[in-house]
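Private note to self, pasted from the team thread so I don't lose it. Backbone tokens:
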């Protein structure tokens, strides 16, 4: 399971061989100096517009970002990693767009918030030490890093992914088995929000995660919950099946379990997922009874040469008091509840197979039944276009609950149905990765307490440019 960049400078072994008789000895291989320093990064420019007024400034968003990562290998086992991310609007906000990809701000008491568009900002997104021990059987990552676990992960849809202050250990007692343990103290993500951890340059103090822990749901009140999260896992491959089991304790908030198994044979891929999340008694003492949430999903796919197709289905428990979605616990949005708890989960992606391409945040909500089908074709190189690929994905979501008011149990909420069609084409052109996306969204919200449904249909066009260095 990848938690951060773990590339270490390889050790160089130099030896010379000699033959007997009248054959001259082989010259020793020259010693090649390897720098302990490494450098990588990327530059991005993202643009989006929608059909409410296509290509107009008012309905368009655009932003540029540059990320730079530096590594220093202390020796063959230990390495220091540091990274910066900077954002800029490049003046687009003066005439081309009115919105940016990323906003920041603080979530305060009683659901209050101060959200500010982050046009220009600079922060440290990576700062850690990685090490390998016991002949490579134990790897540790301590410090600021990206994470990729089922219920706490860095979301890559944004122009700048969220990162975490965490300590992670990965042990490999055998070649096909990894045991993982991690403690996550802090993070800088909340839906589309990124803050600079200490709040500098962004309205508010540390945004969603504040400056004092993983999940301060009730910031600014006597009920603040700001402890971190623990996770332990086992991931292994046996008889062609890759299985993983995760346990999470988001302290004072919830406990969760994630089980998954995937296999591939003769071009056929098959997978199954199960997740459970239950509220901690500390949280229930503040907001009242919260039902456990659970979900299951299944996936079936087929790959032949350059063509791949797959279909998946997921279902989340339909419970009135279940407000803990099966989604990224690191980016759940604290809503407008009088105690600080509202439509939790809005904006948080899910690792369920069925997650929508763009309209994420619904498939893990209570009551959601989702079907997703997708096809991908890799056309290879065409003229100046390298690695040409095309993807089509259709997602249908029905019955997803989204709470609207301050009442937790039996309160007012919508049931949301959504259909999304996403068509994406991409290729590398002179070293620049170009992705163009068209998204058609048809969404219907029906108040469960009665009243007229609202329906909205939107066409969205997006352009992603990325240059890696």
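Design output:
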């Amino acid at each position: 399971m990848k938690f951060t960049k773990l590339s270490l400078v390889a050790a160089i072994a130099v030896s010379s061989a000699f033959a007997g008789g009248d054959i001259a000895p082989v010259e020793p291989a020259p010693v090649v100096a390897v720098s302990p320093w490494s450098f990588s990064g990327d530059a991005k420019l993202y643009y989006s517009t929608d059909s409410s007024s296509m290509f107009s400034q008012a309905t368009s968003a655009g932003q540029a970002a540059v990320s730079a990562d530096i590594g220093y290998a202390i020796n063959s086992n230990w390495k220091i990693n540091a990274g910066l991310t900077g954002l800029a609007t490049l003046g687009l906000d003066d005439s081309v767009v009115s919105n940016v990809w990323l906003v920041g701000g603080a979530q305060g008491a009683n659901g209050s918030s101060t959200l500010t568009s982050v046009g220009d900002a600079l922060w440290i997104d990576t700062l850690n030490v990685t090490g390998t021990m016991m002949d490579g059987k134990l790897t540790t990552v301590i410090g600021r890093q990206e994470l990729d676990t089922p219920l706490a992960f860095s979301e890559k849809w944004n122009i700048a992914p969220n990162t975490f202050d965490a300590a992670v250990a990965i042990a490999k007692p055998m070649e096909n088995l990894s045991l993982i343990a991690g403690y996550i103290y802090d993070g800088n993500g909340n839906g589309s929000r990124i803050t600079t951890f200490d709040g500098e340059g962004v309205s508010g103090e540390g945004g969603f995660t504040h400056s004092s822990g993983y999940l301060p749901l009730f910031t600014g009140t006597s009920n603040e919950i700001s402890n971190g999260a623990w996770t332990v896992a086992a991931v292994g491959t046996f008889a062609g099946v890759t299985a993983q089991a995760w346990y999470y304790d988001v302290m004072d908030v919830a406990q969760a379990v994630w089980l998954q198994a995937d296999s591939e044979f003769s071009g056929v891929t098959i997978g199954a997922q199960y997740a459970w999340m239950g509220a901690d008694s500390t949280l229930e003492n503040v907001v009242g009874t919260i039902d456990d949430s659970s979900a299951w999903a299944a996936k079936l796919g087929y790959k032949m040469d350059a063509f791949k197709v797959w279909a998946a289905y997921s279902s989340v428990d339909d419970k009135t008091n279940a407000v803990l979605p099966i989604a990224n616990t690191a980016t759940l949005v604290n809503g407008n509840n009088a105690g600080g708890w509202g439509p939790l989960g809005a904006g948080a992606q899910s690792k369920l197979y069925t997650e929508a391409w763009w309209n994420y945040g619904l498939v893990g909500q209570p009551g959601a039944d989702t079907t997703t089908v997708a096809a991908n074709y890799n056309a290879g190189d065409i003229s100046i276009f390298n690695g040409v690929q095309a993807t089509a994905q259709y997602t249908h979501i029905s019955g997803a609950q989204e709470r609207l008011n301050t009442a937790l149990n039996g309160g007012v909420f919508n049931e949301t149905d959504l259909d999304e069609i996403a068509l994406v084409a991409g290729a590398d052109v002179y070293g620049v990765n170009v992705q163009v996306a068209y998204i058609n969204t048809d969404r219907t919200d029906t108040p469960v307490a009665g009243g007229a449904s609202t329906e909205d249909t939107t066409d969205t066009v997006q352009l992603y440019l990325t240059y890696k260095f």
